[in-house]
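Schema walk-through. Below, the input block comes first and the output block second. Nothing else is stored per chain. Lengths vary across the set, and this one has 124 residues.
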Amino acid sequence: VPLVESGGGLVQAGGSLRLSCSAPGFNLDYYAIAWFRQAPGKEREGVSCISSGHGSILYADSVKGRFTVSRDYAKNTVYLQMNSLKPEDTAVYYCATDTLSNCRGVTRSLYDHWGQGTQVTVSS
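--- output ---
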């Protein structure tokens, strides 16, 4: 599955970014999609996941109230809107697909296809 992330960049603390995850030539409609991030020297951590249809949406405690995940079926794209960004949000952000349609959590082992990542840097 050719996942492609975009939308990363450099932003000041308190600012916003919107990340996109698309899959050219592959239909994401029936799969749960998750966002992960990995900061230098740290483990990759789950940020959020969104089910297909009207299933569950989950967020890590560290981003609740600041990040919003959504999907546009017409554009075959999943978004991560990130507001009130903090320097500790600095990381490479990845999207990934589950084999199932309902979000089961943000454990790395649940996801088997990954994008190449997009860098998010938040300056203080």
